[in-house]
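quick one before i forget lol
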Amino acid sequence: MIIKKFQAGTEAEAIIKAKDEMGSGAVVLNIKTIKHRGISRLFKKDYVEVTAAIEEMQHVTAPIPQLPKINIAVDNAYKSSGSYTMEPSSNVIEEKLNSLQTMLENRMKASELEKEDDNEKDLAETAEDTKEEAQGLKFIKLIYNQLIDNEVNEKYVNQIMGEIQTALKKEATVDSILAAVYQKIILKIGQPKTIEAEEGKRKVVFFMGPTGVGKTTTIAKLASYFKLEKKLKVALITSDTYRIAAVEQLRTYAGILDVPLSVIYTIEEMNQAVDAYRDYDLILVDTAGRTHKNNEQCNELMHLIKDSRVDENTVKEVYLVLSATTKYKDLIKINEAFGHVNNYNIIFTKLDETSCLGNILNMKLNTGVSISYVTSGQVVPDDISILDPQKIARSLLGSNE
């Protein structure tokens, strides 16, 4: 027996192909509709596959009767070896063609209805996918606008959203989109680097920055924390002799905390003060506020920080103090003026005076340095905390917590 398969757009066309090649003695063994899978179903139509067979002893060269309708039919009256066979008499064949034509037409109609149902289902699924995708894109746009409203620089917003869209699947839910952005912001902010006591080491910590950002109050808060909470021996040094009452302000805090204070004017006096506090764990140095537009003053400050002498058991750390209310363009200029020190960190003050915290993320991505502490008021020592990346991320995404 010879068995072959024939494919066409419709069942009738497939049967005609079988008839043309195998002749009237062919037996139709199977008829099935083949549906494309995956994305190809959107571009290719379903087709019909007919499996036909013929005994090898039969010849397929006999003339084919010309009939007005479909010329091949399955004889339901005769069975051979469990298969339907062609009736050799053309009269019998023609007699049964009318009923078969009706059957095929009905089957074709049913097939078309099935295809319509499948198409409607596919269209519904496509519409649902399109709806979900549109909803996801709309939500991404809302997050984009939220970050822009929080004064995150557009460059960094595009960077974050581009990474999110690349990582997320098309069918991502709104919750997964929000979670991905939230986690991305936390990762970009990173973990804060804070002042830590080291066994057998003392630390000299310099605080620099422009005028009016709250360096002196920040130092008082940190001194109170390390003295009262960590039980460290803390000493204060100030070189801020240019601002009226700056020394007196820090002297008041030193008296309340019962910690020593040295006022210095030169780098030599700085070295002497550091030597005098060799038995202390932590020395906090308040430098004079400098405008980033005055290169000479900034260079003097850099000289004090870089060239002051410390022994092998002393570690130097530097913190740039910035106000969260300062415009991002100005923060960049400030960082360019003060950021010539190796391994400095940033403290942001005055978070209570702004509703937009985008500059925290902006400066982290612009400088790559750690954001260590944030302050949100004048109360000593309460209004200071270690930066919480999760809290900042929630704020940037619109949370009021």
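fyi The longest strand covers residues 314-323.
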